[in-house]
Structure formats: C-alpha cells, structure tokens
Amino acid sequence: MAIALTRRTLLRLAGTTSLAMAAAAAARAEGPAPVVGPGFAASTPIRCGAIGLRVRDLDEMSRYYQSVLGLGVIAASADGVILGAGGVPLVWLEPRPQAAYEPRNAAGLFHTAFLMPSRHDLARWLVHVARNQTPLTGFADHSVSEAVYLDDPEGNGIEVYADRDPRLWRWEGERVVMGTHRLDVDGILSLTDTSRSNYRDAPAGMRIGHMHLRVGDIAQSEDFYRDAIGLDSTSRRDTASFLSSGRYHHHVALNTWNSASAGPRDQAQTGLDWFSLEVADPALLAAQRERMAKAGYAPATVARGFESTDPWGTRVRLVGA
Asked: Do 111 and 29 touch, CB atoms closer than 8 A?
C-alpha cells in the first residue's frame, strides 16, 4: 500500500514525534558532535575500503543490504556474500549461524557510514526507505554532513549520509567543527519526487565514508589508530575521538559511550570482523607496514597488503587502492 510521504512519516519510522527527538537519537549515534561527496573522502592518502561482518542469518542480511541500501551481489558462495556498488566490493557477509549476538556494550562496530555521492542521492534514498517503511533510528545535521541512522537486522549500526561541500566546513586550526543539529528533512526531500521511489540500486559512487567503532579506552585506541596507523586527529573529546587522512572530517571515529573499559571481543560472536583502509601510494603502504611493526602490532600479510588487530580484537587491513 502506498503511503503519503511526509515529515511525520519519517519521524514515525524513526520512532520519534519531533525532529528534535530525532536529532537527540542521532546524537546518541554520532556524538555531541573542492569535490562534493565521495570524491573527497576517497581521494585522501588513506581512505575507507570495505567491511567484513560475521552474521547469523546470511540470507536475511544479504537481502537487507540489497533492498535497503541497494547494494548488488558481486560474489556469493557457501563462504559468504560480497556486496558492493558500481562493482566495488563494500560489504563481505560471513556466515556464523551458531554465533551469539555481540552485546552493545562490547567493543566493536558502532556504525558503518555509507557516503552518498550527492545530497540528491540521499534524498532519493530517503524516499525509498520511507516508502518501504524501513525503521530508522535518527536524523542529524553534523555541520560537515547530513546523516540518517538505522540498524540492520542483527543490530549493526548504519549511517547513510551526504557531505557538504568541504569549502563550507569550518576548521579551527587542526580541528574541524562538527555538531549534532536538526536535519533539514524538507530541504533534502525538495530535491526529488516524493510521490514515488526511483531508488533501486545504490549509486555507482557510493562508498564507505567512515567507520565508527566502540572501544574500551580513548587513549589506547588513539595509540593504535592515530599513532600506529598514522591517521590525524580532527576532533577530540573525553569519550570520543575522530581521525582522518588528508583533512577529511573523519575516516575513523572511536567512542566509549557504551563500551568504557570493554575487554577483548569474543571472536565467536556476530559483528564486525574486519575493515579495510585503502592506501593509494605503494611506498606509503610499505612505510605503514614498517610503522605498525615498530609499534608492536605484528602485521600479517593479506591480499594486497597486511592486517593488524586493534587492542580489542578488530582486524584492520591496510591494502593497496
């Protein structure tokens, strides 16, 4: 049955009655907060690549990422399913049918942030999920970007967002100004026809713009992601840290909001198994491997690069772009 797409419809999907409540929900999901779109995020010396998720119900999870995000199947076998956009692999689903669900207070994935090529693409996607009555968990304007939040069927957080033109970002020295404000839903929806959905396949330029992780300790996480991997700090709070390459607002975010003092992750549980950071320059990739080894993180060879394990057991792969 067709539904009338109104702001109220979107708020109901997000389980709220006002955009202020939706922004508050997004604050819990994201924290107190040249080229538009993935062109910038994906042009930096180090950028996000793909993720591997351990999942209990492979078929259900594959259908979800296809139907909700529009990802296409790149490969499928008994070992799992690889999904992507424009032929680029983004999500690897690895079946673990007997696995227990990873608790929300454990270290691990907070959300995977899928970056739309444009605000217009975000608008088309928003009409799509509204008309399919996909449950949402929040909306927010983060000053540098506009974001919508939801969870997959096994509780893995997802952000779908579009960047503002980087010329509009405000920097205070080496810190970028980010916040959590009311999202201009009407302004986004004005960019497309809300009477029908014309979103089926993810835009070819959709990429993972950033990874947001739950960690047990901010200083310890910075030792790994900033000092060993070599990302730059772009924003810092007592309970959260945001890091990037090439002055993007953030490629990796770390928080202890629900996971303070968390111990090592249970590798037999569902959730994030690994994620990759792509390195464009082979010389930089080689230097990064040496840097990780000197820091004591024992890089192991994988296809196109190497991987190390963060202090809580999440595998991070640095691979050639």
From this structure: yes
What the block records as the tokens of 93 is 């689903």
Both structure tokens of 294: 């000197």
Looking at residue 39, its pLDDT comes to 77
Alpha-carbon span 224 to 303, nearest angstrom: 22
**How many contiguous H segments (helices) and E segments (strands) does the chain have?**
8, 18
Size (the chain), residues: 321
Domain boundaries, the chain: 7-320
Low-confidence ranges of the chain (pLDDT < 50): 1-3, 23, 26-37
Tokens encoding 313:
């057991």
Residue-level pLDDT at 5: 58
Q: What is the pLDDT of residue 130?
A: 96
Q: What's the Rg (C-alpha) of the chain?
A: 19
Pick the CATH number of 7-320 from 3.40.50.150, 3.40.50.620, 3.10.180.10, 3.30.830.10: 3.10.180.10
pLDDT at 78: 87
The pLDDT of residue 31: 43
State the distance between the two ends of the chain, measured CA to CA, in whole angstroms: 44
Count of C-beta atoms within a 10 Å radius of residue 183: 22
